[in-house]
Fold this protein.
Amino acid sequence: MAEDLLSLWPRRHLDRTALTPLAGLRPGLEATVAATVLRARLDPRPGRSGPILHVEVGEGAARLAVTFFHAAYLSRVFQPGRRVLLSGPVEWRGRQLAMTHPEWEALEEGEVAPTGLVPVYPLSGGLKQRWMREFMRRHVPALAAQAADPLPLPLRERLDLPPRAWAVTRMHFPADSRERERARRRLVFDEFFRIALAVQLLHGPGSQPGQAQQPDGPLARRFREALPFPLTPGQEAAWSEIAADLAAPRPMARLLQGEVGSGKTVLAALALLAAVDAGRQAALMAPTEILAEQQAAVLEGWLRPLGLEVGLLVGNDRAADGVREAVEAGRLPLVVGTQALLSQGVQFRDLGVVVIDEQHRFGVRQRAVLTGKGFAPDLLVMTATPIPRTLALTVYGDLALSRIEGLPPGRRPVTTVALPQARRRDAYQKVAEEVRRGRQAYVVCPLVQQSPQLPGRGAVELARGMAAVPGWRVGLLHGQMPRAEREAVMDRFRQGAIDVLVSTTIVEVGVDVPNATVMVIESADRFGLAQLHQLRGRVGRGRDPGFCFLIHDSESEEAQARIGAMVRLRDGLALAEEDLHLRGPGEVLGIRQHGVRAFQLADPLTDLDILQQARAEARALLAEDPALAAPERALLRRWVDEALGEARPASVLH
Ligand code: ADP
Ligand code: MG
């Protein structure tokens, strides 16, 4: 509670180090002035605009008109004769200089104006800035002083970091901008250090002895021989890094990044086989049932001819019981599943390799739960979301990074077209054309069903409309359908028995049907860039060129920019950077979902030096005390545990 209050950081500070004399005001200037209230008139306009308070203040011969809306209560403050401080932009109104809704502060008799930097809080629900400021001024210093400093003193001294209590207080009430920055850097160090410790505690490499798998063993060799294609040079390069980790007797912790369609699944299969060739079990976790089902089907197709069985664990039905038993008894070497794999009832006899697909959907904690089911198994996480290096370092901590460069041969870039609503027929003409040629199409909607409350089209309605088109076999797919039905639809689409698949973003990640050549995205402005890129990646996977239509009618500039970026850029990394630019780092790539509290003061893009320092310090500290078990570090340990959340299972931290 106290911590929540203390970390309600000011959005910014008003600079009151310099007062502008009233006579020196100019329109366009953002200024703070001290002046005397000359008169105030409350205009009790009934109706929507509410009462308006007109105030005139003066200093010498200079005058300033000040207007407040919805602020009848202020007429008590702005009494003639009162000295006030006003901060805000200055404008011309008629022939007068004016401020509208400035920040204000009433001065007591004889009080000198408060100077320095004054905090502006992110307020909601009508809490008043001024009230908040006073409340914080009264409570922050004492509360901050009560909280113990989690950083060990020697560390603080070595890095010349001020005490946390000082930093917290000065972050709220700095004397000047230099002080504010010194305070901020200390607090940013704390944010990074805490997350670095958390991530490294969960699965730091080398923190415990691991197992050696057998990459390129007999099963893997037969698998490669049976594959209808050779690996691309990009796949080979990434695989040799992964294989080296797998062969070594320490736990692998590696992130495999590869553009949508670059062929990560083959490498996943090889990693899984490395465990089986070593006589152990392996698990692959995917974020959605559809994707898990598909991965299981793909792996079955490849591995059944080698005599290997692949289990699927997506729900809690009777079939799942059978799979669970077989996994526990060690009869089933390979299992693919959703988060169902994480549940307590799932136990492995000897889990050697864990692969997590489309990692950006899972949090740090979920990852740790799965690896906790084995004795330091090797971990490979895969993502198509290109992550700028700084963010990768922060979010993924000490995962080593491999990248698949390039795409399998013969891929053609997807032609991307943005269409206003009025021209959506163009998109469906292309769908008709491709269906006539025996190709298939996706149509993606933001909603399952149209709703008067939400903008955007619904899949159900659209599918119904399209089913009436002669010659189109239309399928509907969304997350509210029973699983068996969904599986049946997906199977029929994969086999070519459905021409047009109308769905929600459930097809977003990983779905792989090379014969599908058109992707129509309805209400495209309702999707984020990463999502749009994933969706577009569903086509252009076979020998035929792909087409992506973005239907939209948004007037929002940001939405336009997103759609424009999709048309202009093909490369996922460029898109991720554009996304970063449009939305800022906190929102991008689902950092919020990562199970660790998002950064409050840190900017992962510009605070890279602090980040690197914090990670190095975390690593050094854990090398000395791998579980932060020393009694003098109890506080630090608790602080880190809190960042991981209380729901953390006890087994996670060995
Ligand atoms: P992603 O990296 O998006 O998960 P997938 O693993 O689903 O990509 O692969 C996309 C498609 O490319 C699949 O149909 C897969 O069989 C095919 N593929 C993978 N590797 C190669 C390769 N070396 N040559 C040709 N096709 C490949
Ligand atoms: Mg994939």
